Amino acid sequence: MVQVFLIGISAGAATALLFASVASGSPLSVLLFYLAPLPILIAAMGWSHWAALVAAVFASASLAAVFGSFFFIAFLVGIGLPAWWLGYLALLARPAPGTTPDGLEWYPVGHLVFWAAVIGGAIVIVGMVSLGSDLDTFRASLRSGLERMLKMQARPDAPAPRSAEPSRLIDFLVAALPPAAAVLTTITNVVNLWLAERIARISGRLRRPPANLSAMQFPAYAPAAAAVAVGASFLPGIVGLSAGVLAASLMMAYAILGFAVLHAITRGTKGRTFTLGGIYAAVVVFGWPVLLMTLIGLAETAFDFRGRAARRRGPTNPQT
């Protein structure tokens, strides 16, 4: 127990430093900021969820001591507890004699990815509600904050822009930022989960079998949850916007599933590396191809592309 506590303190200190690095304003600090949940997840996957919980609380308390009490709740709700919860789920297992080498059925990786999306949407919704409990108040608060940011970044010697230009830009950002933030948070959660597993595995501390991402399956309720979120996004007010944020994060989860399908169905084919590299590059450069991956992920639920490809191909090594 002492070791778990010490690991938690160490992971919490690393998390707090990664989070606080954004205050430096350097481009690298942005990347370090998004990696802030990583030490908590490593503590969970390598030791126990108790170590992760200690890390989350210690990081929150450290940031509150330096930057003010607001950061205790903000960090704990926005980063600490979500990372702990994902680590807790990753270590869940139930007896399954004869079905696996260790006799345990571990929490499915697809369920973890879906949870990462739900948490990503929930974090953004909590942030929205903290700015205003109704749509008009939220948009006014966000607009005010964006206007202050644009004024701070404007150079004193820069020519004055035409009056309509900043207004149109702010209107676009007010509409686009909530779903974009949910997508980014979902990606951050999944990437940190993957990195934590890899690091724990390399160090020999991974407490669950390595995940086979290309074979992941979402829970049975995932399509219904996504359909409800998309349908509710057409409702008026803050409820519709919140549902839209959740729908965006869930669609990102289905895009990740689409990439998993792509990895599975191209296994053993010629030019696989070139194909996968080209698609990833297109997504990074253009952005819109991620919509195609989302459609593939959604279609996988109905058409089972991976199962059909596996039956045609025959037995192969699944860890690819």
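Next protein, fold it too.
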Amino acid sequence: MKQIGLYFGTFNPIHIGHLVIANHMVEYSPLDEVWFVITPQSPFKTKQSLLDNNHRYQMVFEAVQEYQKLKVSTVEFDLPQPNYTIHTLLHLKEKYGKDYSFSLLLGEDNLKSFHKWKNYEQILQHHHLYVYPRISGGSIPEQFKKHAKVHTIDAPIMEISSTFIRKAQKAGKNVRPLLPEAVWKFMDEMNFYR
């Protein structure tokens, strides 16, 4: 059974920090592949800074095409809004059930609030969490510290954010080193975030 790690995000834009973490997780955990699950633009919240789904898909596709173990997933594009992780997991289990086992990739900051997620107990019952370090305040709830399905992976701490990249791009700064080359080219050609 193939072990798939799901890395959720808007990836607006995807940057080298995302790639470093995804690649580290697939190389230093039992995962066979990491799928970048692009969170669609909510029809209820139109954020001007959020590029449309297909443009973000194209950037992730460009970013991962040279990495055999990294894939892009549009599974949430066709699911009802707003997206809850539990619904996505149930949908994937239905679609791929026998061949794939799905785990979640989470930043440590998200683990601290994981108990607020819809049906988090059900998620933990059926799925593993692979947690990467983040610099953030607060502490991890006791129930997750020694949990059999919560695995901390000693990945590099990446403090690059898509928000920072968008603001810097808008201000006319050179953000090229922060992006995979193919993503930079696409973003530049399309004149995104300017």
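About the second fold: The CA atoms of residues 63 and 180 lie 6 Å apart.
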